[in-house]
Specification:
508 residues; alpha/beta; eight-stranded parallel beta barrel; 22 strands
Length: 508
């Protein structure tokens, strides 16, 4: 969220959505205590925060030896035991080895079937050092390995029942007990219709020209909701609320809004990364797309968080790259910086993600608080004339209808003819996320986006006191009710009606 540049300089409007909001007293995050280091004498130096480490360096931490996998500068919260993307365990400091196996994968389920395949998903296992992958079995025989928590088993016979189990393994090869067995039956030889959820119908998305396309190469429009900051309103994201979002609202996508500052990721990287993992799994289980939002806002230069972003997205991409329902939003609302500066950030971060996940679309925030430069007195020609040097990417646009009128609407119209655009955040009210709703102007935006198949996500799925939050105050603390309209503010009723209208997802 943002206002005009002059208003921002005067302090009349917030620089970004949620900026300055007080945390909900119903939810608090506490940092986990660090393990005691130096249990045994080690030949390697103790790990320290704020230290540059290069790949191959070995350290001691918590009585164990670790080897650096990726060059980085360490931070408090990125201890070796909690960042398997950065550190590999080599055993204990006395020359022993890690003998503790991961927990058994839970929640094994079939997310789709055809006449020749079964798509499976499960919940992530835990381990004292870190899970590095999963081993899949069909009828007792090992058939595949994966680093993610989903996999599609192909080459099956029609109308046949198969029994599957999964085991987790850690960096030194310890293997967990098997998950509970799941029996799934393939479809008939005549084939089956596409699945019934947005993610099952469309499969892995990709950018084709200036559109977002499904697995059939057809342009699609996703419509859904964004969470509020996880540090404040995580209690609004429950099994019940996400069931309602998927089946009562008929949402295609959940945007998982991870603030970096303002009490967010930087205060406890491990805890917040794990919460994002959990929400990806929850969205996946309900057939929605999961849009992972790196909600950097203050400072507005995304380079300030580049090292953190590399660590976060490395782990997210490594664990979930097997999924076909992901989108990565790598810079929420850059502000106070040029487009060239944002482009530089994107071109350093995208290769890090692509090393783990070569296929998931990546969304790049634009200058002027995601306004294609309009709020900075610029326009979309900055991006069009100097695009990010990467493939399968889109550019993001944000608007708040009561503050952002015809100039912003025209920019979206023009830009979407030249570059692929995804509206990853908008509201029906003012740029502060509060104040009166302008449904007439918002409908003009929605009509344009429908005509051009521009995907959109509304801010926000919480009970924040502002008019932009869809739920009335106290709903999340009381655990609902989540379905219907009785718990919704006017903006919630209005946007739910627009999400609930039937999707048009071409499949052939």
């Amino acid at each position: 969220m943002r206002g005009s540049l002059s208003a921002l300089l005067a302090g009349a409007l917030l620089a970004g959505l949620g900026h300055g909001l007080a945390p909900s007293p119903a939810f608090a995050i506490t940092s986990a205590a660090a393990p005691t280091a130096g249990v045994r004498t080690s030949a390697h130096p103790q790990w320290q925060p704020n230290t540059s480490y290069t790949a191959g360096t070995r350290v001691s931490y918590g009585g164990k030896e670790y080897e650096c996998l990726q060059s980085h500068t360490s931070l408090t919260g990125w201890e070796p035991s909690s960042t398997p993307a950065l550190w590999k365990s080599l055993g204990d400091s006395g020359g022993g080895t890690d003998t503790a196996a991961p927990s058994a994968p839970a929640g094994l389920r079939a997310t789709g079937t055809t006449s020749s395949s079964v798509s499976l998903a499960w919940n992530a296992s835990t381990d004292d050092v870190g899970v590095t992958g999963y081993v899949m079995y069909r009828d007792g025989a090992q058939i595949a390995t994966t680093t993610g928590t989903s996999h599609t088993v192909g080459g099956l016979s029609p109308s046949s029942a198969y029994t599957f189990t999964v085991r987790a393994r850690d960096a030194v090869g310890n293997v967990s007990p098997a998950s509970e067995a799941l029996t799934a039956t393939t479809g008939s030889g005549g084939g089956t219709a596409p699945g019934t959820t947005p993610a099952a119908i469309n499969g892995r998305l990709k950018v084709c020209g200036v559109k977002l396309c499904n697995q059939y190469g057809k342009p699609v429009q996703l419509r859904g909701m964004s969470s509020h900051g996880l540090q404040w309103y995580s209690q609004c994201l429950t099994d019940g609320s996400l069931d309602a979002l998927a089946t009562d609202w008929n949402s295609d996508v959940l945007r998982i809004s991870l603030y970096v500052q303002e009490g967010g990721y930087e205060t406890d990287p491990r805890r917040y990364t794990d919460r994002v993992h959990q929400l990806i799994e929850m969205a996946t289980a309900r057939g929605m797309y999961a849009l992972v939002d790196w909600h950097q806002l203050t400072p507005g230069d995304p380079h300030h968080n580049l090292a953190r972003a590399k660590t976060f997205f490395t782990e997210i991409a490594q664990r979930h790259r097997g999924k076909t329902n992901l989108l990565y939003d790598i810079a929420n609302e850059p502000n106070g910086v040029s487009w060239a500066r944002i482009k530089s950030y994107a071109e350093q971060l995208i290769p890090v993600i692509r090393a783990q996940d070569p296929a998931t679309p990546i969304l790049v925030g634009t200058h002027g608080w995601g306004s294609l430069g309009i709020s900075d007195g610029r326009d979309e020609t900055d991006v069009i004339g100097n695009p990010v040097q990467a493939t399968n990417i889109m550019y993001t646009f944000h608007f708040y209808a009561a503050s952002h009128g015809q100039e912003y609407l025209n920019a979206l119209d023009r830009a979407s003819d030249r570059i692929p655009v995804f509206v990853t955040e908008f509201g029906t009210q003012e740029a502060s996320g509060d104040g009166p709703n302008n449904f007439t102007r918002t409908q003009q935006y929605l009509d344009l986006m429908a005509a051009k198949k521009i995907s959109w996500v509304n801010w926000n799925f919480s009970d924040d006191e502002r008019s932009g939050a869809v739920f009335k105050a106290g709903v999340c603390g009381n655990n609902g009710p989540w379905t219907g309209t009785a718990s919704l503010k006017p903006a919630g009723v209005w946007i739910r009606d627009r999400i609930r209208t039937p999707d048009s997802f071409p499949t052939a």
